Amino acid sequence: MPALLDDVRFAFQPLFNLHTGGVVAVEALARPHDGTVQDLLRMAFRAGYLANTDVALACRAVRDAADHGLGLPLHVNLLALTVADKPELMAPLYGALREVGRTPADVVVEVGTPYSRAPRRLLVRGVERLREDGFRIGLDGVGEGDSPLSLLTEVRPDVIKLDREVVVALPTDPARFALAQALQHLCEHIGSLVVAEGVETEAQLAALRRLGVRLAQGNLLAGPQRRPKVDATIAAVLSEVSDPESVTSTMTAPLRRQAGPRVTDFLHPATTLPDSATSEEVRDVLANQPTVSGVVLVDGEGRPRWTVDRNRFLLAVTGPFGHALHAKREAARLADRPKLIGSGSSALELLDVVAHANRERTNDDLVVVDDDDRCLGVVRVADVVRGVAEMKVEQAAALSPLTRLPGSDSIAREVDRRILGGELFAVGWLDVDAFKRVNDSAGFAAGDDLIRAIGRALTEGAPSFPGVQVGHVGGDDFLVVAGLDEVVPFAAGVLDVPFEVEGRGVTLSLATLICAAGSVGSYREVSRLLAPLKEHAKSLRGTSWVLGRPGSDHVDVLRGGPHLAVG
């Protein structure tokens, strides 16, 4: 087998952050001279050297990346069978890292299929050993093949690679879109990041952005190369895909975090050196990497001790005496204590940290750390400011200009979130009876005043019920999402308010659908089931309220009476 490995070369494909447009890591892809890497591994399996060959390929990937000067986090691939094998088989990988001066913290081990052939207990233990030694963990091929969802929750990997077959189908297949949406929701709960692989078209990229996926790789962004441009950006591609809402209308709205983006949405790889590094070593790094804004000096455990800001450092070491004064001395003398922020923090929390920093350091990068205070990367303040501004503009654009209530997209996200969470909840559809007659008789300005008054009643009633979310979806139509124990008191409070236009009373109609876990599959289905309930409510006299359930023709009338017969 060693002779066969001599003919293996590696290509490196960048992974991009879809928020910043920058490269955050590179994946090493084995390229045998003849056949594929799968053919090579099959031959090794038949010869009884599968795990040894698999680890040897990972070692070659580490050395090739070093030969090309790739200092970004490196993704290497190992089979699940290899990770579940004897721990001593991994020794060459540790040796390769020491040889090139890298640490396990610089490497993401992508555990690949087949999973079912690896004993589950041994696989989980193997992953735990790698993580304890500092490696970050990825699970590859999720969404196709034999990747069990329970393994995701048990391992809680740092990254989950969404299989290219799922990515290809996202723009046209609602079922695959829902699968990816559910996976993204799961990852937000277990602290994993979704990486979409095999992105080939702008439609796929738009679908991923709609889902909230923030890491991606594929030929649309950058193909595998022997020496990729790690300072490349995909800003041009992202600007061309400027309307993520252009995805096929059969898709549901994205599941976005209500609190806004996290700091990890804007993460850049950190350029690190040991905390004992000299000023000369730091200067060499900055000279060879003109796009790097600073260097993080870390201890032996990867914990940040100092940060060196590019501009302040170069100002100190340039000039006729600067180099002679500082070159051989520790760079920490010209460094600052790092501004740290936890990986689970929101972008708004980061801005709060910046606001309380010394004025001369407000533009410094912040160092993102994990629960063990190890450096995960850096965040640039300008990226976060831009991202939060875009979020606020997007939120403002989604509000009704008349009532300042969220629109249908916000309600759709909330309904889909509760469906995926298996919650018991209610959705109500409220409108004004004969609203056109109000406009025709009193004028559209009076009609606008009525809509504002209803919006105020909904808004003022909601704070007493934490699980209630209200939205104005157009015209005189309002939507309410609430917990089962909240819907009755909240709705009753709104319906008890007397509304009138120019002294004449106005009546409302409310249709409510009670959704048990598993009874509905999407916001679209909820909308369809509410339509006949709304028609029923409209058939009643006075302010009306009806209640129904999916799968049942029975309708409970909570308010309103039958229309009187005319004759």
From TrEMBL:
<dbReference type="InterPro" id="IPR001633">
    <property type="entry name" value="EAL_dom"/>
</dbReference>
<feature type="domain" description="GGDEF">
    <location>
        <begin position="423"/>
        <end position="560"/>
    </location>
</feature>
<dbReference type="Pfam" id="PF00990">
    <property type="entry name" value="GGDEF"/>
</dbReference>
<dbReference type="InterPro" id="IPR029787">
    <property type="entry name" value="Nucleotide_cyclase"/>
</dbReference>
<protein>
    <submittedName>
        <fullName>Diguanylate cyclase/phosphodiesterase</fullName>
    </submittedName>
</protein>
<dbReference type="InterPro" id="IPR043128">
    <property type="entry name" value="Rev_trsase/Diguanyl_cyclase"/>
</dbReference>
<dbReference type="GO" id="GO:0071111">
    <property type="term" value="F:cyclic-guanylate-specific phosphodiesterase activity"/>
</dbReference>
<dbReference type="InterPro" id="IPR000160">
    <property type="entry name" value="GGDEF_dom"/>
</dbReference>
<dbReference type="InterPro" id="IPR046342">
    <property type="entry name" value="CBS_dom_sf"/>
</dbReference>
<feature type="domain" description="EAL">
    <location>
        <begin position="1"/>
        <end position="238"/>
    </location>
</feature>
<dbReference type="InterPro" id="IPR050706">
    <property type="entry name" value="Cyclic-di-GMP_PDE-like"/>
</dbReference>
<dbReference type="Pfam" id="PF00563">
    <property type="entry name" value="EAL"/>
</dbReference>
<dbReference type="InterPro" id="IPR035919">
    <property type="entry name" value="EAL_sf"/>
</dbReference>
